[in-house]
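Forwarding these from the shared drive since the link keeps breaking.
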Amino acid sequence: LMERKTHVKINRKEVMLAKLRKSCSCTPQKLKNFFMDFFPVLRWLPKYRIKEYIWGDVMSGLVIGIILVPQAIAYSLLAGLKPIYSLYTSFFANIIYFLMGTSRHVSVGIFSLISLMVGQVVDRELLLAGFDLNDDAPPASGDGSLQNDNLSNTTAFNLTTLGINAECGKECYAIGIATALTFMAGVYQVLMGIFRLGFVSMYLSESVLDGFATGASLTILTAQVKYLIGIKIPRSQGHGMLVITWINIFRNISQANLCDVITSAICIVVLVTAKELGDRYKHKLKFPLPTELVVIVVATLVSHYGKLNELYASSVSGAIPTGFIPPKVPELNLMLRVALDALPLAIVSFVFTVSLSEMFAKKYAYTIRANQEMFAVGFCNIIPSFFHSFATSAALAKTLVKTSTGCQTQISGVISAMVVLLVLLFLAPLFYSLQKCVLACIIIVSLRGALRKFRDVPARYHVNKVDTLVWVVTMSASALVSTEIGLLVGIVFSMLCIIVRTQRPRTALLGQIQDTCFYEDDLEYENLSIVPKVKIFRFEAPLYYANRNYFLKSLYRLTNLDPNLEAARRKKYEKKEKQHLKKGNHRTANGLGFGETTLQLVPKQIDFQALVVDCSSISFLDTTGVNTLKEILKDYKNLNISVLLACCNPSVIDSLKRGGYFGKDFGCMQEMLFYSIHNAVLFAKGQK
């Protein structure tokens, strides 16, 4: 006999007040710990082992910095912004994460998925403001100063109606929208950190994230095709952007720029070949080949000296100014316009950062603090938004490069930021003649990992069909509808799959493994012994309101007995019997004898006297679940069949007690509840 421990009741009010008093108290030591926790760099930097770590950090920082520059310029196409803003983003994100991050290895900065989500909001707001989304007009041959606005679109938009007493061109308005969106995303992330809402990331399963990334990659690929072949088509907005863009591409394919097509073909061949060789011989290389940088440098030189823009009308990046624009507070009214769009951006940015941080922390045997990561990525968005930057996140590809080149701490992030700073201060104008088709090639080749997920579909389907369906639905919605809707559809659909699986779970009748006290599904295993006069029923899910009917139907089907129908037959038989005994007539109206009528009313004999319900897979019961068990207890008792429960966990037992299943004083509990199926079977046999 097992007895439950008596738990002391906790006064939750007192506990909450004690925690509140503790958190509100302020001592010098507590203040010091707060700052040390909020800026983890204060803990690990004094312990930095210079001789052991510095070479790996410097090497990885330089490599990531070299990769960051071409990627930042390329991803500006996705965000619908000028390259200078992407460089600002890469610079500030690395510095802030160095101060506040708890992961030693992740690379935080510009990320293709986040850039796409920012770009979609920017394009929508530009369109609503009356700007032309066509960005393929000839670039301004500016002097490299920061005062040059986007002369390719001279429409000025008076923002007085939005509370801004100034006229703003397309570029100014675009970066205003991006910074407002980024600020709001950062605020959401900080609030989630304050209220410890990091658990929301649990609802983004691996299948949802992979499907979302793959669907968004198809959208990114589609958006870059027009740059690859040099055609001028309007940038599609709203739902179904992927389909509309492809229709426009095929309608205008005859206008393809031959120079851009040839350049794109050469760049893709070079980039893919270099990536494949790098993957094959990565164990022999001390650091990855800076292929993107080499391609950009060579392509810029060829474009400049070959005058590809002047002679062949090839679209180029244009003037990229040097230095820093004075900081500016994001506009409040623009924040209100994009507040809803910032929520999925905040969640996706946080989830990717934390999942990568946890993955590499586990690999290299250290711990991170998910809540502090939320603060870190939040301030990586809030602070840079004042410096004309847009949203950031951790990126897997760059993080893998960091670890492969010997990264030990976030000192490498500072080195990468210095490389970007060098470009910002001195080298940015050199990329004036860089063709946009080259940037598009870099973006498309960087999608190789996400697009390769299509090859994994058969293996994924073999492992789990439901997860594969979640992946397909999320990917399709992200690509064909929109990225935000796709993410929402993926989350909702994955939850529905869980609900459906609990609504119609596996059920089975169990048989005894010969000469043992163990029982298993008689449809799945051979040579099981059927226990005479006892039925053992297993239900592999929680029992709650949504699956109550399925529980009863499965029980009646497998035991081949519906107690309600059987009770109705018996009542009908008893009624007929009384009527015939009154009349003294032993023949029925249809000419059958009384015994024959009995056979029709009660067609079969019940072949069991006890029902054992295996509750080992029932994790919880709601009120409906308790009432269902009480119902079958009563119904089977009317047929002289005892119902015994086996392997109930403590929470199920407590629910049954509170629901009055065992009676008022629990006197019959020992005869109704057993800690193993075998004990219940032995008890049932002893009742015969």
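-- next protein --
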Amino acid sequence: SLYVSEYFSQSAQKLSFYSWYGNAKLFHFRVPEDTVLLRWLLQASRGKGPECTDMEITVHFRYGAPPVINPLGTHFPVNATVRPSYNISITLSSTVQNTTVVNITTPAAGDWFIAAHLPEAAGRIEVKGFSTPCPYMFQADMFVLRLTDMPVLEPGVPMLQTIISPAKPLHVKVFVPKHASRMRFELRRCLTYEQKACAVRVVLGSITLPQSFQRIVTCVGNVNCSLALDSPPWEKWLQVMVESLGAANASVSMEMLASFTACRPGSTSSFLNFSSLNQSQTGPRPGSTGAAGSLAVSTGEASRNVSNQRNSCLQNHPVVREDLDVVSVRYRLLNGPSVPVTSLSPTLLLLNLNSGMDSGGSLVVNLLLNKTSVNLANATVAACVSAASPVLSLNTTRNCSTAFFQGYPLSVRSSSAEAMLIVLYPQTDVWFLSLQLICPKGQGECNAAEAKVTVFAYLTPCFNDCGPYGQCSLLRRHGYLYAGCSCKAGWGGWSCTDDTKAQSVGVQNLATLLLTLSNLMFLPAIAVAVYRYYLVEASVYIYTMFFSTFYHACDQPGIAVMCIMDYDTLQYCDFLGSVVSIWVTILCMSRVKKILKYVLFVLGTLLIAMSLQLDRRGVWNMMGPCLFALVIMIAAWVYHGAKRRHCYPSSWKRWVFYLLPGITLAFIAISVYAFMETNENYYYTHSIWHVLVASSVAFLLPPRDKHKKPWAWSQKLTCRYQICQNDREELYAVT
């Protein structure tokens, strides 16, 4: 045998602490056909700084679709079926780098996914630039060993093979045709080179994670060994591995035979399917012969279908796959939403999910029983959703499993006429929905009965669009797209249905009121600015108060939300107003000349607007203007102090009752903003930030110029005459 090794690698990704599925870093690989050995090389590393501590990295594996994980232990939707993922842990302690190898023999060909993440996020809101997080990197490489000339076992044709040594097992493959209901594998005439009885182990199927359904049988002696598989995977290659359990240098010869039992399908005619598809898309054509002709065709077809049911083992009903959007598909039955279900043979619907881009959503199957269509009160319609091959024996075994897949069972009856199933991240394959009528006293009771079941099946990115307390996000890894729910207001779970830590409506209203009404503390600062003739500064404070109020009204995670314009616009205006308010306040305190002050106002605002557009959450967007303005203020104060030959500001009352309280409030506000905010306490700590910053502005604004008279509204009524009189006096003096 000729083996070929191949190597696949993807770029390293920076890991994140886990709070929702978007924090898990996904790796997507495709394992080629005839692979006999798969080796994952997992490399994890961390930075060397003092902020880097011991860390445990969790790595999940899954075949066919991204792994369904639940690191936070939250609840899934009610009708969702979840099977635990296969995962390992990689610890980074004293070593900066850790390399782990995972081996898988006879892996299934197709898509394989790896997801890696750090432990649960602490929930602390960190200001970008104040602290340097430790970088944790993860990279996955894949090595495969592929057999280039794997022998093909043809159905019904015996094949003689030899195992040279136990170290080199024998690999063969057999193609499973469509509509195969049963496969039988036989091992005959197994002898060693000394013509003695042999001992071998036969493994049918490939390994899939998180669950593997390989069939293993041990054959000892001259007795023929056989293994039967119900519902093998249709139109796929099935690997067979035979290992010798004898001596090290003993060769073993044997004869292998594979046979299949075919299932004859019965379905409605192609003419009727084409006619239904044409009518559903274009509607009835004018000038047609009317309903009588269609009724005659349907009646004739119905009589033929009854005879087909007795001669076939399943009833096919055509399904149209309608692509709506990315990871969004609707399945439509050509002959109407209702399908007839009998006890003679299962009704089969094919749901195509093998495009390679369908595994990143949720498959939803909803069954609704028409109660008037069932003649027997105790009859049950059993259903099974499975991948690769359908379940064809619901009436006998009542087990929703195929040869290599554990299906998802459903059932409807008169007392419970509706059932729903949600398959999270369905694996890439052809899926089948099997339905059959079952009676408690035996199938003879159901021979004449027929049930009508309405089937709704669709693929959606997020089930129920993550509900009112979640946001469905479309994630991307290279060219692969998948969806995840980001929850808010304390809600959690895969689809944001877990209300264990959810905020009540009262708490949501309180959070909105605190974050919005706390901006009213700018009113004293506005009043002080207007009273002291700082009209430009007052305008900036009004702008900041307005947009901060409505930004936080729009930024709320719950139902107490009000957006007067686009969210991104509100956020940008809020950030711009906050930084410009600090800029103009410090420049006003510097007491530079008016023309220079207004030039700095405009120039600084333009530069701040540019920097916020580049990086809205960078700490230097706020610290940079503050430090530059402080440098200007200190330089101006030193200049005034040197000119007057005493400290500036000269009044001790100005320092004790205004400057020191204002500076103290500003430092407390910065400390709360930078070090105390978390996701849980955000609504009141950020409200405290609003109150402290607005209060500090009212204290820090300097007094008005001495030549400015206080606002006197009674005197302003005669200002027009007074101005004219002053102008005449000046003109007279000039002439």
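The longest helix spans residues 620-644. The chain is about 30% helix and 35% strand.

- D.
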